[in-house]
Amino acid sequence: MKTNQEILIAGITPSFLEKGLLWFQENFEKIKTHAKTNSWWQDNTLFLETSQSVKISEVLRRLTDLGYERVSYLGARGEFSQLGGSIDVFPINAVMPIKIDWLGNIIETISDIKLTAAEKESATLARLKKSKIEERYKPGDYVVHLDHGIGIFRGFAAENETTKPKLQIPNKAKISNDQNGSDFFIIEYGAPRPGAAPDTLYVPFVKADKLSPYLGFATPQIHRLGSQIWFNTKKRIKEETIKLAQELIALYAKREMAQRQPVLGDEAQEKYFATEFEYIETEDQIRALEEISADLRKERPMNRLVCGDVGFGKTEVAMRAAFKAVLSGLPVAVLTPTTILCEQHFETFSKRFSRFPIMVARLSRLTPKQEQHEVIKKIKDGKIDIVIGTHRLLSKDLADLFPQKGGLLIIDEEQRFGVKQKEKLKSLNPKIDILNLSATPIPRTLYLALSSLQDVSQIKTPPPGRLAIKTFVLPYSRKVIRDAIDFELERSGQIYYLHNRIETIELVKRRLLKIKPDLKIGILHARLSEKQIIETMKKFHVGEIQMILATSIIENGLDFQNANTLIVDSASRLGLSQSHQIRGRIGRSNAQAYAYFLYQSKKFDPVRSRSSQDDRSRASGRAASNGAGDKAKRRLLALQEHQDLGAGDDIALQDLEIRGAGNILGREQSGHISAIGLNLYCQMLSEAVETLKQN
Length: 695
Known about the structure:
Layout: E1 6-10, H1 14-17, H2 21-26, H3 28-37, H4 39-44, E2 45-49, H5 56-65, E3 69-70, E4 79-83, E5 86-90, E6 98-103, E7 106-112, H6 118-136, E8 142-145, E9 149-158, E10 174-175, E11 183-189, E12 199-204, E13 211-213, H7 228-253, H8 267-275, H9 283-297, E14 303-308, H10 314-327, E15 332-335, H11 339-352, E16 360-363, H12 369-380, E17 386-389, E18 408-411, H13 419-426, E19 433-438, H14 444-450, E20 455-459, E21 470-475, H15 478-490, E22 494-498, H16 505-515, E23 521-524, H17 530-542, E24 547-550, E25 563-568, H18 576-583, E26 594-599, H19 613-623, H20 630-641, H21 648-659, H22 662-665, H23 670-676, H24 678-694
Parallel strand pairs: 3-4, 10-12, 14-19, 14-20, 15-17, 15-18, 16-17, 18-19, 21-26, 22-24, 22-25, 23-24, 25-26
Antiparallel strand pairs: 1-2, 4-5, 5-6, 6-7, 8-9, 8-13, 9-11, 11-12
């Protein structure tokens, strides 16, 4: 909303629904500018003003296209109604409903409507909460009840169905004490004695906080209602979490000792630098930037982790932190796990800082030897402000990379570096500020446990206009490959084809040329020379190459907005998080992107290419169950299931279930987690940490 004379009606899209009302007010002009030139913004926003010439029928049609529901009386955001020559609408971006009156085909007045149906709004919020609960639980899933232990979720029942539920449930049922809720979870527990029917527990929706999905690494033991086993298990594991919490507190206490001068930057120049950003910042980006600025103003060196799904804007956050550090006279080093990511960051940073007197350099195996010597000399002379490099930054000749006063170290894709490597960097100078970036999201419950010890910022909101990548898991098929290539080339787009074996990559190229003889293909893998890698990336960037055929070297660092089709052969060999990362190489613009994960199988029902992408998507879930091993099948099905924007959280949880939690909390914790589930374990750990910190 801006004024009563000019209004914005935002479409009902996932990215808009996550925005606060203040965001729309602050970005009104930016949104209006985008809506003039960008097709996605044109399709998902509606601007109206008094004296505008527009038919009422056209506005009614547009409201329906935006996802608004036509009702007799307004009761909640996202609804509209018509009476004669006026429309009442409650925009999702407005504090109150709006009345729009017409005189002929001219909008005569636009005015606010005072709320008289607050109870309807509350009912709508309740419906939304119920809907989210129903999406979270699926019949057959294991669940954990805080008081009763692990059971099997069997569905939902309305209040009048608790005595004769529609589902076939044993006669014996135990109802939770509080039955004020109108709907119930149905949880099945173990039989009270051999040969007896299983017990059933009805849990009202108002007690939903007692339940959590079971996330573990083995098939759990189903508990019996009223048994002491669950009570004893919780007691034992609570004692273990206290021990772990003590170890974690001792570990993180070490970084509290060092001190350095506050990093204040220059507010005026930073605001100007922010206006150069061509996109609208998400609320999560703004929050992360505020948290980083607060860290840098302290005398204790920063040690913050920024988690965000692929393509959610972590790099912009890092560049603004780097700008603040440089303005404060501190050097900045950006450590990347791959040469390709190093090259991409060098291009991005150089372009972003081109209007400022800031020197950006790079150090990797793609940097010629002579240039490396020159860069190192300039670093030591203080003539380079930002250096971007791979493991080369860990070399002995860069031991004095940071001066005594400190500096900022940005570690991108920090999960790709070993503990010893990161500890070595931290030991370079105790006064340096460290900003870790990770595209592997931390599960929410684990975040709650660790955030008391480590500073964590999460970017969970996708950029406005970003579309979810449509993902298909299918048996290998030349026809699927041909159709996918033809579709992308018809819209003048580009393609990534991932084949993760260097030895046979040339053979795959010949096969692709048989499918599409005139296809312009470039190859990328780790054994190519520096010159070949740079040349291939440049040709792809300017459009001379239509497809990059590559190994998993493209997992990080490629950011070409015209590439919106990904084909992965032998997808069952990739890890789940790795596949999600590779999928993140596409869909980085407002164009719809498509990812095809193909697996080799001799036993499957042939999935014919269909004209409808939706048909192919439905078929792919069925087909994936026929190939590969159990873990590979679970990985592929997880990719198929979790393809919405921000699915990285769900991917991370699935990956934890498949691989175990050894990489996060230590292998010795896996048994405890399997006994009670990851959610409850992390809740206990969080409580233990807080209790110990207060004592």
